Amino acid sequence: VFDGLLRDAMTLVGQRWEEGRWTIAEEHLASQTVLRALDRIRLPAGPESRVGPLAVLAGVADEHHGIGLTCLDQVLREEGWSVANLGADVPAADLARFLARNHAELVALTASLPARLGSLRESVAAARAVRPDDPLPVMVGGSLADDEVLMTSLGASWAGTSLVAAAAFAGRLVERAAARASTEVPELP
C-alpha angle 115/119/123, rounded to 5°? Predict the structure, then answer.
């Protein structure tokens, strides 16, 4: 549903806006309608939604598109992640401060327009700098994620626009985190 129907619908919304057939107001109305529909199909969050490893989701500075983050939030929760969706337009310094205060196991960023490339670079670097000895895996989504050479140069652990593929990548990380947790021996006082 996310990789087909929803993506096609949002592509149509974007095309109508780019062509000048829809105003920003109409684009926002369509986006809000999608967000309300996503809220209706979201599974209720029980206590188990707070016990998985933490994934932090954010749109880079000046990125205003956040529907992909909302979809990824839902997909990651279904994969066993606890999710902190910071939403759109998160400055790199604020992302880094949040990551430093919370024990995240994954960062997912979105950037849709070439004008956001500088912000994307800053956010990836900020996320990686939080744990220099054990860098956080960084996923990148949005239309910039389609540029494989760019994503490699940024050091993205995963990049793409398929939520199915994102879920598979995140699922492998959950398995690794569980394996690592089972081998760690707690320190005694």
Answer: 150
Gyration radius of the chain's alpha carbons: 17
Residue 89 region by backbone torsions, left for phi larger than 0, else alpha for psi between -120 and 50, else beta: left
- In whole angstroms, what is the distance from residue 166 CA to residue 29 CA? 27
pTM, two decimal places: 0.78
Average pLDDT, the chain: 84
Helices 67-78 and 163-183: crossing angle in degrees, nearest 10, is 50
Residue of 7, 9, 165 lying closest to 75 (CA atoms) = 165
| Secondary structure (3-state) at 102 | coil
pLDDT band at 185 (very low <50, low <70, confident <90, very high): low
44-48 long-range Cβ contacts below 8 angstroms, 24+ apart? 45/77
Tell how strand 158-159 and strand 104-110 pair up.
Answer: unpaired
- Picking from 102-106, 156-160, 177-181, which range would have the lowest pLDDT averaged per residue? 177-181
